[in-house]
Specification:
The chain is an alpha+beta fold and 362 residues long. The chain has helices at 2-26, 74-86, 109-122, 195-200, 357-360, and strands at residues 28-40, 47-50, 62-73, 92-97, 103-107, 125-127, 135-152, 165-167, 170-176, 189-193, 205-211, 215-216, 219-220, 223-225, 228-234, 240-252, 262-265, 273-280, 294-298, 324-327, 329-331, 340-341, 347-354. The chain has 3 domains: 27-133, no CATH class; 141-234, YbbR-like domain (RNA Polymerase Alpha Subunit, Chain A, domain 2, Beta Complex), CATH 2.170.120; 240-360, RNA Polymerase Alpha Subunit, Chain A, domain 2, CATH 2.170.120. It is built from 5 helices and 23 strands. Strands 2, 5, 7, 9, 10 and 14 form a 6-stranded mixed β-sheet that branches. The protein has a 5-stranded mixed β-sheet with strand order 21-19-16-18-22, with no helix packed on it. Strands 4-1-3-6 form a 4-stranded mixed β-sheet. Strand 12 (215-216) and strand 13 form a beta hairpin. The longest helix is centred in the N-terminal third of the chain and has 25 residues, at 2-26. The radius of gyration is 35 Å and the shape is elongated.
Length: 362
């Protein structure tokens, strides 16, 4: 008797599980599935796929987001959701290989629908949405061009004993074939400015690395190999370090200043007279004096206080101790444009305050 009851209970459990599994497999739902359609070419290919709005020459994949409605069993849809969570992605990836020929092409809605339907079939789903979207793209090819490095020392050119040494003297620039006609006939060179580096390196002999960036002849998104060059400079003997003191600090106000009267409030008076160390190249016809130098700070439009909300007279607000930080700029006389201010760059702090009209007329 007990054996019979046990068999009945076991059969009931098995039947219940079978019914539950069948119901889970047979009941269908419709869900919107987020797909990422990725256009691909062969691995290690020198081809590049571009979509409208992609960064020029970028390395990112050509991806089109395509949310579509699909129907399927609860189990199949649940598996899709688990797969998305395992990938830690908001969408699921579907790859479409494109024709590997340079030029423009379009994946028509019918072709796109076939790829998505096949992806759905492989995941036990069925495409419900009528896809009407097409994908236009361009296939381009990476090309390499050898260019010579030319160094621009700017106002420091006469200070150098000899032309800067560059290692390597030539680099390879990689760009897309469609952009090559823009530079046809142009001199194959890349001009590298070292003015900022020379300001940071006042010693008579210095070597430094200069990054080449990602632009050449007005073309963005190029890639250089190597990505930087090493430049060595030697200055003429005789450049001297000089201390200039008691240079009055001036203010340069913007032309589009708000209506009303304003003044600068200084947290302290330490910056109102500047003292700087400069490097003066040899061969100057006369000595550089502190009276030759103009020191100033710029007052920018955003430095002004907000307009008062009422018509009541506004008094100058209390000056914050910190103030607005601003680098001090220096202007040297003709013949001394190549003089360099040695680090650290002088900096001051100030606030712009509104003057009470009743006080301004007293």
């Amino acid at each position: 008797m007990m054996k019979t009851q046990a068999r009945l209970i076991a059969a009931t459990v098995v039947l219940t599980v079978m019914i539950w599994v069948y119901a889970d497999l047979s009941s269908h739902e419709v869900q919107r599935i987020p797909l990422s359609v990725v256009l691909t070419v062969q691995a290690q290919s020198d081809l590049r796929i571009e979509l409208e709005g992609m960064a020029a020459g970028g390395d990112g994949p050509a991806v089109v987001e395509l949310p579509v409605k699909m129907s399927g069993s609860k189990a199949a849809l649940r598996e899709i959701e688990l797969d998305r969570q395992r990938r830690a992605s908001r969408s699921l990836r579907i790859e479409i290989p494109v024709k590997e020929a340079v030029g423009e092409d379009t994946i028509q809605p019918e072709e796109l629908r076939d790829y998505v339907s096949e992806w759905a079939r492989q995941h036990s789903l069925k495409l419900v949405d009528p896809i009407r979207q097409s994908i236009s793209y361009r296939v381009d090819r990476w090309m390499q061009v050898s260019v010579a490095i030319e160094v621009d020392a700017g106002v420091f050119s006469e200070e150098l004993k000899e032309p800067p040494a560059v290692d390597p003297p030539r680099v390879m620039v990689e760009l897309l074939a469609s952009r090559l006609p823009r530079v046809e006939g142009a001199t194959r060179r890349l001009i590298v400015s070292i003015v900022d580096e020379l300001r940071r390196h006042p010693e008579e002999e210095a070597s430094f690395d200069v990054p080449l960036g990602h632009q050449w002849e007005g073309i963005d998104g190029v890639r250089f190999s190597p990505e930087q060059v090493r430049i060595t400079v030697r200055r003429q003997e005789g450049s001297r370090r000089q201390r200039l003191t008691a240079i009055p600090l001036h203010e340069m106000w913007p032309s589009n200043r708000p209506p009303g009267q304003y003044r600068i409030a200084w947290p302290d008076d330490l910056g109102l007279v500047q003292h700087i160390d400069v490097l003066v190249p040899a061969g100057k016809p006369r000595a550089l004096l502190n009276t030759d130098v103009i020191a100033y700070v710029t007052v920018d439009p955003e430095d002004f206080p907000a307009e008062p909300s009422t018509g009541a007279p506004q008094t100058a607000p209390a000056v914050e101790r910190s103030g607005i930080p601003r680098n001090v700029r220096f202007v040297f006389p003709p013949g001394f444009e190549d003089v360099r201010v040695l680090p650290p760059t002088p900096k001051v702090r100030f606030n712009v305050v509104r003057i009470d009209p009743t006080q301004a007329t007293r």
